[in-house]
Each structure stands twice: as structure tokens, then as C-alpha cells.
């Protein structure tokens, strides 16, 4: 029992003696003490955003020959010398480099003396204390909108989800607005807030519009605000405008032309088709113009057999709607019997065509309901001898009204013609007349009173009586103001 104890004591003594020799033989018998500290550069803790870069160096100022190593927040040693997170040996320091910071990098990163590496480098002649120093990586993620399309759709009469997935760290708070007005969420309401957006119960067409997803983020270093506007389109079957009747009348005359118009709003836009006598009309045999929510069938009435019932159908994936138009024979109106100039200035011509409005209810289809003017500068007409490029102005009829042709070129001769319009179409054109606009008056000049008309007397009275009186009142008001009475 005594012999083993003696043996252990001798072994321990020998081991301690070897350590003493090793510690006294390196760098002039100097030993690294536990009081020596590692240095991190930069030392301050800084907040970083995702995808930013950063470099932190670790060194032992008193003993640059020691080997160092870095550990991540999970205590794993960083050994990679390339990649998103890696180390680089700078000689007297070891750098930890983040090429693109990620959210998972948040936590404590530790630099420590590589005891085994240092001992190997000095052939085992040194005793190295396990020195460590850490810094805390704080990672913020700015506000971002993921999987958020600026245009989204929903189906009428069904529940809808508007996606707006907001990401960020710290977690942003989110509020919603519809066409600029705030939305309020309740358990029993139509609107519900979701983790990745919001929902609406049984959407209607009035729910279409702009929804704004606003995100607000507060952190220790400040705050940020971002928003995303989403256009919500409601998919629905075609609807005719509320003022349209499912069956309507149209008029034309043999030798004339008529445009039959069919309107229907739909989402997605409807496809229009026309038929007559159960026979489909195609663009190959007829002139058909299609727009986003409208279709127009243009018919040249060559014979009376053209008159009859025409059917328009608007259809999309959600449904269809039809409109029937009865094309009836009417009469061609007579051209205006009166066509004269009533007034003129530098950019306007005032034309009288003897307009008289009918007050019959229902209106007679033969009654004139408007006028069409065509006009073009005389010089332009003489170049082409054609009205193809003439400016066209349409007006509704009104009792005793004259019609202003505005935005004309000063000091220019114009050729003008007029046609009357009733439910069946346009009349023949009147004879062409030429009228001229006035030159532009120089600034500060005025016309003279060549004859003693009422207008001239009023103008003289304005200059002689009204204007001095107004100036006198202004003078007294100014005097009162300077005296503090006003």
C-alpha cells in the first residue's frame, strides 16, 4: 500500500519539473500569463443588417506568436478559409470575415488561444493559458415583402385572400388601408388579418380597388417604414350597364350606315359575338370593332332586308349576358336650312344652324337630335381636295343654341360644312362655307367704339364712372388699413 503512493509522488514531481523547464526556456525564459488579454478589433458591438459584410480581427498584442481560433455561436470551430463566413490569417492576428451576414449569424462569436497549436509550433516548450474573448453579433433584417404581387384577383361572391407576406427582424407591425382609408379588423367583420396578408368574406365588385399593406419596424438603432400597394381585381360574369335595356331599338335608312353598340363590363373582359336570324356574324363578312368592354357592329344598309333583330352576346369563364337590338327603318334627316356665322374672335367661330329641340315624349325617331360639323384650314384642303383629315365636332341639339368651334388657329381661313343627325343617321352635308378667325390682338390694345351702340356706351360708362369710383373706394380702404381701422 505504501509503494504506490511513493511512485505517484515521484511521477508528479517529475512532471512539474518538466513543465517548469519548458516554461523557462521560451523567449528568454518568459511565460504567457493568464493576465494577458486577447484584443478584438473593432471592440464595440454593432448591429448589422442581413447581407452586409463585416470583418473582426483577434490578436494577442503581447504574444503575437500564439495560435488563435474562432468559434461560432454553436461553439463549432471555424476552419474554412473561403466562403460566406471564413477566417484569414493576417500573421499577427486572425480575421473572422462575413461576406454576407445572415440572420442565423446572430449570437456570440468567440476568439480563443489555440493551446495545442501553439504548443506544437514551439515544440511543446510552452505552457499556454486558455484565453478567450467574445463579441455579440446583432443581426437586423430590413422590411421586405415576399410573394406579394402588385395585382391580385378574387372571384365575386367568394372569400378572398390578399397576400402580403411581411418579413423583418425585429418583427414589423402591419396595418391595412383600402383606397387610402384605414381598415379595421374584428372577429365578426368581413375583414380578417392573416399572418401573410388579409381576407375578405364574400367579395363584391365594390371590393375592387387599391389595398395598401403598411409595415412599421422599431429596433434599438432606430425605426423604418415600408408599404406595398396591391390592386385587387374582382373576377365576375358580364354585366350590362344599368342604364341599358336588354332589348333596344336602333334606326337606319336604305343607303345609309348604322352602328349597333353592345356594352358589358366583365373580369376577365368578355368575348363578344353577334348574330342575326340565328346566324353568327363574323369579321370576314361584317365590320366589327371590339374594345375591352364594348363591341360595335357597323352595318351598311343596302336593302330593306337588312332591318330586323340583331343579338349580341358577351361571355367569359364566369357567365354571359345577351342584348337584343331591333334595327328599324327610319328616315334620313334634311340638312340644316340655316348656316351662318354669328360671332368670331382669334380662336373661336360661333355658328348658327337654326337649332330647335323637340320636346316630344317619347321622342320621334325622325326628329333632329344633333349636328355634326367638319372643318379644316382652307390651305390644307387645297393640298388634298379631301375631307378625310377634317376635324369633326358633334353637338346635341338645344333650343336657339349656337355652336362654338373653339381652339382654332388665329388669322386662319376655315372651310366648314354641317350635317343634321337623327336616330337613323346623318343628313347630307350643307354647302361648304369659308370663315376666318381674327388675328391675335397685341397685348394691351383694345377695340374702338366705331358706332354709338349700347355696348360702346356701357364701356364708356365703365371707364368714366365705375372705374374711378372703385379706385376711390380702394384708396379709402387703404387709408383705413394704415390707421388700424380695418
From TrEMBL:
UniProt signal peptide? 1-28
Do the record's keywords include Cell wall biogenesis/degradation?
no
Q: Keyword Signal, does the record have it?
A: yes
| One GO term (biological process) | synapse organization
Keyword line:
Immunoglobulin domain, Repeat, Signal
Ranges where the Fibronectin type-III domain occurs: 335-440
> Might you report a single GO cellular component term?
axon
One Pfam match:
I-set
Spell out the PROSITE patterns in the cross-references.
Answer: FN3, IG_LIKE
Q: Which InterPro entries match?
A: Cell_Adh-Cytoskel_Orgn, FN3_dom, FN3_sf, Ig-like_dom, Ig-like_dom_sf, Ig-like_fold, Ig_I-set, Ig_sub
Start and end residues of each Ig-like domain: 4-127, 142-231, 241-328
GO MF entries:
axon guidance receptor activity
Name this protein carries in UniProt:
Neural cell adhesion molecule 1
Amino acid at each position: 500500500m505504501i509503494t504506490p503512493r511513493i511512485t505517484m509522488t515521484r511521477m508528479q514531481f517529475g512532471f512539474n519539473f518538466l513543465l517548469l523547464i519548458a516554461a523557462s526556456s521560451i523567449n528568454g525564459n518568459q511565460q504567457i500569463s493568464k493576465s494577458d488579454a486577447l484584443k478584438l478589433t473593432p471592440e464595440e458591438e454593432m448591429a448589422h443588417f442581413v447581407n452586409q459584410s463585416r470583418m473582426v480581427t483577434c490578436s494577442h498584442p503581447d504574444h503575437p506568436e500564439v495560435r488563435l481560433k474562432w468559434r461560432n455561436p454553436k461553439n463549432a470551430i471555424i476552419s474554412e478559409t473561403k466562403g460566406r463566413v471564413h477566417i484569414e490569417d493576417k500573421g499577427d492576428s486572425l480575421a473572422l470575415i462575413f461576406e454576407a451576414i445572415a440572420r442565423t449569424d446572430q449570437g456570440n462569436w468567440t476568439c480563443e488561444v489555440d493551446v495545442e497549436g501553439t504548443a506544437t509550433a514551439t515544440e511543446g516548450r510552452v505552457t499556454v493559458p486558455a484565453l478567450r474573448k467574445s463579441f455579440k453579433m446583432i443581426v437586423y433584417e430590413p422590411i421586405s415583402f415576399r410573394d406579394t404581387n402588385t395585382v391580385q384577383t378574387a372571384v365575386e361572391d367568394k372569400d378572398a385572400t390578399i397576400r402580403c407576406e411581411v418579413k423583418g427582424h425585429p418583427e414589423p407591425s402591419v396595418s391595412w388601408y383600402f383606397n387610402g382609408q384605414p381598415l379595421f379588423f374584428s372577429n365578426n367583420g368581413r375583414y380578417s388579418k392573416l399572418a401573410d396578408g388579409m381576407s375578405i368574406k364574400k367579395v363584391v365588385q365594390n371590393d375592387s380597388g387599391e389595398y395598401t399593406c403598411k409595415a412599421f419596424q422599431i429596433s434599438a438603432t432606430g425605426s423604418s417604414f415600408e408599404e406595398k400597394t396591391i390592386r385587387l381585381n374582382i373576377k365576375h360574369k358580364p354585366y350590362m350597364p344599368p342604364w341599358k335595356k336588354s332589348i333596344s331599338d336602333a334606326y337606319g335608312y336604305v343607303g345609309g350606315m348604322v352602328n349597333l353598340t353592345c356594352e358589358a363590363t366583365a373580369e376577365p373582359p368578355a368575348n363578344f359575338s353577334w348574330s342575326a336570324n340565328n346566324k353568327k356574324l363574323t369579321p370576314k363578312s361584317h365590320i366589327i370593332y371590339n374594345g375591352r368592354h364594348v363591341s360595335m357592329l357597323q352595318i351598311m344598309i343596302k336593302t330593306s332586308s337588312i332591318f330586323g333583330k340583331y343579338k349580341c352576346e358577351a361571355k367569359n369563364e364566369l357567365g354571359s349576358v345577351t342584348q337584343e337590338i331591333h334595327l328599324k327603318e327610319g328616315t334620313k334627316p334634311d340638312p340644316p336650312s340655316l348656316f351662318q356665322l354669328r360671332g368670331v374672335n382669334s380662336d373661336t367661330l360661333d355658328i348658327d344652324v337654326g337649332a330647335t329641340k323637340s320636346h316630344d315624349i317619347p321622342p320621334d325617331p325622325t326628329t333632329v337630335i344633333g349636328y355634326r360639323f367638319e372643318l379644316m384650314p382652307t390651305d390644307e384642303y387645297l393640298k388634298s381636295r379631301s375631307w378625310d383629315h377634317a376635324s369633326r365636332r358633334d353637338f346635341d341639339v338645344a333650343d336657339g343654341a349656337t355652336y362654338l368651334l373653339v381652339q382654332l388657329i388665329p388669322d386662319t381661313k376655315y372651310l366648314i360644312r354641317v350635317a343634321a343627325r337623327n336616330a337613323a343617321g346623318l343628313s347630307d352635308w350643307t354647302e361648304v362655307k369659308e370663315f376666318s378667325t381674327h388675328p391675335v390682338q397685341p397685348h394691351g390694345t383694345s377695340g374702338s367704339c366705331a358706332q354709338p351702340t349700347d355696348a360702346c356706351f356701357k364701356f364708356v360708362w365703365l371707364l368714366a364712372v365705375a372705374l374711378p369710383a372703385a379706385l376711390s373706394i380702394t384708396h379709402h380702404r387703404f387709408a383705413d388699413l394704415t390707421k388700424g381701422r380695418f
